[in-house]
Amino acid sequence: MTSIASSASEVKVQHRSLLIERGYEEFTGRLEQILGRFVASKLKGLTPDGAMEALKSMEGEQGFMIINIFDHGADLLMVGQRRKAKQYLIGNPFVAIQITRYDIRAALYAPLRVLVFESEPGRTVVEFDQPSTLFGQFGRNEVTAGAVESDGKLDRVIAKAAMT
Is pLDDT at 59 greater than 80 in this prediction? Predict the structure, then answer.
């Protein structure tokens, strides 16, 4: 018989919700232009130095890149709902490596998740959990410092995408 040890703890996370006075397509289009794109195939067969160079070439504003996009609005069409909503996985694999080498549990939150949806025509909502509160739970200065930096970077990227 296998034994499983279990533990649980409560974590206080700051959830942010930003109302943007900009249309959904315009905002998501700008966001996707500002951020780089992660392309895993560009890393195949590279040396560590070559991989670092390739990652650098994929970076967008603030060093972030889109790892993946889930179109939740398209998924909702399967149940007859029309909704404009995308979840972005945003981050940088190099930054994730720097953080997770100090505490592998930080991999639970890297990359970051950002939900963007249309609340009404001409208005877009951006929601995410504050990185410093997600990563801060591990009590490692090396992990928290990188997350605090991500707080500001994420704010700057969203503000730039929202600008008219």
Answer: yes
CATH of domain 16-162: 3.30.310.70
Q: How many helices, marked H, and strands, marked E, lie in the chain?
A: 6, 6
**CA end-to-end span of the chain:** 62
E strands, 11-104, in order:
15-20, 36-37, 65-71, 85-91
Cα 44 from Cα 6, distance rounded (Å): 38
Which residue matches tokens 């998740």? 113
Tokens read off for 16: 């942010």
96: its two tokens: 């994730």
Q: Taking the model in full, what pTM does it have?
A: 0.91
Query: For the chain, which residues make up each domain, given as ranges?
Result: 16-162
